[in-house]
Design goal:
seven-stranded mixed sheet; globular; 22% helix; single chain; 4 helices; alpha+beta
Length: 140
């Protein structure tokens, strides 16, 4: 069983390690936690359910927000999919979410499309020389 929770600052390192996202002012996140696996957390030293997925939000503008996703299990993807849009669109009143994905990361590109994001732009060599960067967009 997974539960969804707001992410305290000391747990954001979980997402940073998996996505290389830079924490910016206003960075916020939600996580999926596996309540059947309670363990000591190497991030905060507390005992709590294991983090299995996280969605981070950053680079807030009056109309948009950038999204960052990391998942350890397919069930985390299904659990978080129900919540990815609620906070930015319903609670924070944003109209657009966007995400950047390396073109070579086939799994994440498929996930973005499956989640309803549309490929809005490809930046040639945007990640590194020879590695394009895909910009995905999801409208409310």
């Amino acid at each position: 069983m997974y539960e969804i929770a707001a992410v305290p600052m000391d747990h954001l390192a979980w997402l940073v390690k998996r996505t290389d996202v830079e924490l910016t002012t206003g960075f916020q996140a939600i996580s999926a936690m596996d309540t059947t696996h309670v363990e000591e957390c190497n991030l905060c030293g507390q005992t709590h359910p294991r983090i299995v997925g996280m969605i981070g939000y950053s680079n807030w503008t009056p109309n948009s927000v950038s999204v960052h996703i990391a998942l350890d299990t397919p069930l985390a993807a299904r659990t978080l999919a129900k919540h990815i849009y609620k906070y930015p669109f319903e609670q924070a009143g944003r109209k657009i979410m966007y995400g950047l994905v390396r073109a070579s990361n086939r799994r994440v590109n498929l996930l973005a499309k499956h989640a309803g994001f549309v490929l809005a732009h490809v930046a040639k060599d945007g990640w590194s020389d020879g590695e394009d960067l895909n910009l995905y967009r999801k409208d409310k």
